[in-house]
Amino acid sequence: METLETIAGWRLQNLHLLSRICLQSVLVDKDIQRYIRQRLATDKNLQKWTKDDGVRQEIKSILRDRANGIEADSEYAIRILRWLTFSARPLSVNKIAEVVAIDTKRDPAFDRDKVLEDPLDALHICSSLVTITVNNEHDDYELEGVSREIVALAHYSVKEYLILDRIWTGEAAKYGMRDDVCHDAMVRSCLGYLLQFEQSELHPGFLQVFRLARYSAEYWISHARKIGEQTEEMG
């Protein structure tokens, strides 16, 4: 609720961009796990994820190594895992490349110089916790002219581990995910991303340059509603 009140109090001069960016909304509710299952069925390198024995230990080990590694990579990994865990739809490699460049603690929140030059670096940052597959179904990718390569959590156990209460007491505590906190962060990330634009920047091909613009414009309100739902459940 605090986040919603904060948003309502902002003087967001450029939020008219929301309607401009969403002139034609193509909203298709996809099951992200569909892409994961497809990849697991066809990629021999990921077969280990189909065996539950030791999967959580593998996840814990990877997160521990990330937590003890380079600070920048650790922060990038948190942002990527948060978006993959709570995104409203599958995310292309190009979108994930921009996700790491959003820091809501600074102004402006989005720093184009921080965008991953090679989007596939997301695989290195998150190790085997994420995978990439190809989406041949979503018409929105043709509309935006963006990559059909989708980044997703490599196994449902990854999300299960990240949202477990017990993760907060271990070495991987910094990767713990709470629904309300993560949706709050995604609302701020989406709006922070959108506020970088001036009206003059809305040109043909805009969405092909700013990959997260469409998602941010269409789904920030969805994440805001999730915060409200969590507040009602707690009440």
UniProtKB/TrEMBL annotation:
InterPro entries assigned to the protein according to its UniProt record, in alphabetical order: GPIID_WHD
Name this polypeptide is given: GPI inositol-deacylase winged helix domain-containing protein
GPI inositol-deacylase winged helix domain residues: 76-165
Organism: Bimuria novae-zelandiae CBS 107.79
Lineage start: Eukaryota, Fungi, Dikarya, Ascomycota, Pezizomycotina
